[in-house]
Write a structure and sequence with these properties.
mainly alpha, membrane, APA family basic amino acid/polyamine antiporter, about 475 residues, amino acid transmembrane transporter activity, Amino acid/polyamine transporter I, single chain, globular, AA/rel_permease1
Length: about 475
C-alpha cells in the first residue's frame, strides 16, 4: 500500500486507538436504549406524517406493500452498518468505514457528502418544524406566528424565527452533554410513539375494509414507484453509527440499536398505514398536507384529533433535528481529528465531554441557513447523499472481509458478498430515479470538496503528520 498516497487507508487498530487521545476523547455514556431511541428519533419524523399521502396517491391501498418494500431495501444496508459499527467503534460513520477500507480520498468524498447531507437535512427539518409549530398553534389555539418572522424572504417573510430557535436550542443541548441530549430524545421518542399509537388505536376502532378495493390500482409499477419515495421515510438509522465512540458496549449495542430501530419503525409504519387506509381513501389523504390528520378528520370524523397529530409532528421533528445534528457534529469531529479539516476544532470540552466549539460553529451556521435561505429542491441532495453512503458502506463490508478476514467482528453480515451486493443494487436503483439537476448539484458539491481536500486536507492529514512518520 502507498502509505502516504491519497488512497492510503487507516489501520482499524489506529482508528480505535485514536479515540483515547487526551483532548479529543469523548465520554462513553450511551446505552443501547439511548442508541435505539436515536435511530427511532431520526427515522420517525415528517416521513410518516406527510409521505403517506403521496405514497397512497401513487400506489393506492397497496402503499402498505410499498412501506414494506422500502424497509427491505434499507435492511440490507442496515446489516452492513451493524457489522462495521460493531467492528470499528469510532465516530464518523460511513466516513470512518471508508477510511479503513477504500482510502483517504474516498473517505473525504463521503465525509464531505455527509456534511452536506446532514447540514441541509437539519436546516430543512428545522423549517418543517416551524411550519408544524404554526399548524399546532392554529389547530389548538386558533393563533399562529406572523408570516414576517415565520418564513424565509422568498416566501414573503423576513426570517424564519422558529427554525432558528429550534436549531440554537438543540445546539445548547448538544454542547451540555450527550447523556442529557439523548435523555431528552428518549422522552420525545416516547411521546411520538404514543401519538402514533393513539392514531392506530383510533383508526382500528373505526376500521372498514371498503377502501382497500381496488388494492393495487396502478399495479406493481405503482408499488415500486411509491417505495422509491417512501424509502426516505426510513432514512436516519445510519445516524446511530455516529454514536459508536460514545457507546458503553459498542460490540453488542450498535447492531441491536441499528437493526432494532429499523424494525420498530417498520412495525409502527405498517400499522399506521393499514389504519389510515381503513378509515380514509387514498384520495382524501393525498389531497392534504397532513394526511394522518385528514384521515382522522374526514374518515373518522374526529376533527379535534388534528391538534394531537400536529403536536406529535412537532415533537417528532424536534427529535429528528437533535439526532441528525448530533450525527453531523460527530462526523465533522472525526474529520477534524484526522487532520482533513482544522484539528483544533476537534478539541473536546473537558467539563461537558463534547466537541463544544465545533458544535457551536455548526449550530450558528445552520441556524443562519434555516433563517434566510430557501432550500427548495436542494433537499433532494439529502437523498442522493444518503444512498451514496449506503453504497460505500456495503462495499466496505466486502473489502474488509477480503483484506482483514481475521479482524474481530462482534456482528457479521450473513452471506457476504450476496447481501451487501443486494444493498448496493437497491441504493443504485433508487439513485437512478433522482432528477438530473440533483445529480448536477451533487457533482458540483463533490468538485468543491475535492478542491479543498487537495489544497488543505491532503497536506494536513495525520497520515502525513509527524506521528505517522514516527510509526
Amino acid at each position: 500500500m502507498a502509505r502516504h498516497g491519497m488512497f492510503a487507508t487507516r489501520d482499524v487498530g489506529s482508528l480505535i486507538s485514536g479515540t483515547t487521545e487526551e483532548g479529543t476523547r469523548l465520554k462513553k455514556a450511551v446505552s443501547v436504549r439511548h442508541l435505539t431511541a436515536m435511530g427511532v428519533g431520526a427515522i420517525i419524523g415528517t416521513g410518516i406524517f406527510v409521505v403517506i399521502g403521496e405514497g397512497s396517491r401513487i400506489a393506492g391501498p397497496a402503499v402498505v406493500l410499498s412501506f414494506v418494500l422500502a424497509a427491505v431495501a434499507c435492511a440490507f444496508s442496515a446489516l452492513s452498518y451493524a457489522e462495521l459499527a460493531s467492528s470499528i467503534p469510532v465516530s464518523g460513520s460511513a466516513y470512518t468505514y471508508a477510511y479503513a477500507t477504500l482510502g483517504e480520498v474516498v473517505a473525504w468524498i463521503i465525509g464531505w457528502d455527509l456534511i452536506l447531507e446532514y447540514g441541509v437535512s437539519v436546516a430543512a427539518i428545522a423549517l418543517g418544524w416551524g411550519g408544524n409549530l404554526n399548524a399546532f398553534l392554529d389547530a389548538a389555539f386558533g393563533w399562529s406566528l406572523p408570516t414576517a418572522i415565520a418564513t424565509s424572504p422568498e416566501d414573503g417573510g423576513i426570517f424564519n424565527l422558529p427554525a432558528v430557535v429550534v436549531v440554537l436550542a438543540i445546539t445548547f443541548l448538544l454542547v451540555r452533554g450527550v447523556t442529557e441530549s439523548l435523555r431528552v430524545n428518549l422522552v420525545m421518542v416516547v411521546i411520538k410513539l404514543l401519538v402514533l399509537t393513539f392514531f392506530i388505536v383510533v383508526a382500528f376502532a373505526n376500521f372498514g375494509t371498503g377502501n382497500f378495493t381496488p388494492f393495487a390500482p396502478h399495479g406493481v409499477d405503482g408499488i415500486t414507484s411509491a417505495a422509491a419515495i417512501i424509502f426516505f421515510a426510513y432514512i436516519g438509522f445510519d445516524a446511530v453509527s455516529t454514536g459508536s465512540e460514545e457507546a458503553r458496549n459498542p460490540a453488542r449495542d450498535l447492531p441491536l440499536a441499528i437493526i432494532g430501530s429499523l424494525v420498530v419503525c417498520t412495525v409502527f409504519y405498517v400499522l399506521t398505514v393499514i389504519g389510515a387506509i381503513g378509515i380514509a381513501t387514498p384520495e382524501q389523504m393525498s389531497a392534504s398536507d397532513a394526511p394522518l390528520a385528514a384521515a382522522l378528520d374526514q374518515g373518522a370524523g374526529l376533527n379535534w384529533a388534528a391538534a394531537v397529530l400536529a403536536l406529535g409532528a412537532v415533537v417528532a421533528i424536534t427529535s429528528v433535528v437533535l439526532v441528525i445534528f448530533y450525527g453531523q457534529t460527530r462526523i465533522f469531529f472525526a474529520m477534524c481529528r484526522d487532520g482533513l479539516l482544522p484539528r483544533r476544532l476537534a478539541a473536546v470540552n473537558q467539563r461537558y465531554g463534547t466537541p463544544a466549539r465545533l458544535t457551536i460553529i455548526l449550530g450558528v451556521s445552520i441556524s443562519v441557513l434555516a433563517a434566510f435561505v430557501p432550500l427548495g429542491t436542494i433537499v433532494e441532495l439529502v437523498n442522493i447523499g444518503t444512498l451514496f453512503a449506503f453504497v460505500l458502506v456495503n462495499i466496505g463490508v466486502i473489502v474488509l472481509r477480503r483484506t482483514r478476514p481475521d479482524m474481530p467482528r462482534p456482528y457479521r453480515v450473513p452471506w457476504v458478498p450476496v447481501l451487501p451486493l443486494i444493498g448496493i443494487a437497491f441504493a443504485v436503483y433508487l439513485m437512478a430515479d433522482l432528477p438530473l439537476d440533483t445529480w448536477i448539484r451533487f457533482v458540483g458539491w463533490m468538485a468543491v470538496g475535492l478542491l479543498i481536500y487537495f489544497l488543505y486536507g491532503y497536506r494536513h492529514s495525520r497520515l502525513r503528520g509527524p506521528e505517522s512518520r514516527r510509526s
